[in-house]
């Protein structure tokens, strides 16, 4: 073999690996987009309407020490342990509670539809992808942010030099 042939094979393999890895990354990104859409369309609205009253930073008392308003809260779980086991809906306490099984019932006053429970099972079996970033803001965080709004700032006398019109401002 010549020196050119010996060098060509590793370069060809390197280019092939780069091509395959970029395609795999694109497929993974598409998969993440689909899982994020499933979460945003099927899971998050149910969490907001059915769970956040008792299991969020906005509730007076977080029931069972289980926070569902953030990714970290879902992964941490509550007093009974991990709420979900990513990839294993059958082993997840959240699914048992949604099905009103084994003495658990969430939401407590009504059982969710079978389709909604199936959506949660699919979400967990697919790895419980949660696109939310960071912890949910606390009430104190929201109050602090509201205090920064312009309408809550003290009135200041304007600087006369910056407000005075001169001939350069007139068209």
What does this structure look like?
By secondary structure, the protein is mainly alpha-helical. Helices cover 50% and strands 0% of the residues. The protein has six helices and no strands. Helix 1 (3-51) runs antiparallel to helix 4. The longest helix is centred in the N-terminal third of the chain and has 49 residues, at 3-51. The termini are far apart.
Compute the number of strand runs: 0
Major beta sheet, specifics?
none
Q: Looking at the structure, what is the overall shape? A: flat
What Rg do the Cα atoms give?
27 Å
Mean pLDDT: 81
Distance between the termini: 79 Å
Instruction: Name the poorly predicted regions.
Output: none
Percent helix range: 40-55%
The helix/strand order is HHHHHH
Class per helix and strand makeup: mainly alpha
Q: Helices, strands, pairings?
A:
Layout: H1 3-51, H2 71-76, H3 93-98, H4 114-125, H5 139-147, H6 160-163
Short description:
With 171 residues, the protein is an all-alpha fold. The chain has six helices and no strands. Helix 1 packs antiparallel against helix 4.
Looking at this protein, list some descriptive labels.
171 residues; mainly alpha; 50% helix; flat
């Amino acid at each position: 073999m010549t020196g050119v042939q010996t060098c060509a094979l590793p370069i060809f393999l390197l280019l092939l690996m780069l091509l395959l890895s970029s395609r795999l990354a694109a497929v993974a990104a598409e998969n993440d987009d689909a899982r994020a859409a499933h979460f945003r369309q099927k899971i998050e609205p149910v969490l907001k309407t059915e769970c956040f009253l008792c299991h969020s930073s906005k509730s007076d008392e977080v029931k069972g020490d289980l926070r569902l308003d953030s990714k970290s809260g879902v992964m941490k779980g509550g007093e009974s342990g991990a709420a979900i086991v990513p990839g294993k809906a059958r082993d997840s306490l959240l699914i048992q509670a949604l099905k009103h099984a084994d003495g658990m019932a969430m939401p407590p006053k009504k059982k969710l539809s079978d389709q909604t429970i199936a959506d949660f099972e699919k979400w967990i079996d697919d790895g419980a992808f949660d696109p939310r970033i960071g912890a949910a803001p606390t009430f104190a965080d929201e109050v602090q942010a509201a205090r920064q709004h312009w309408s809550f700032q003290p009135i200041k006398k304007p600087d006369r030099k910056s407000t005075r019109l001169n001939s350069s401002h007139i068209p």
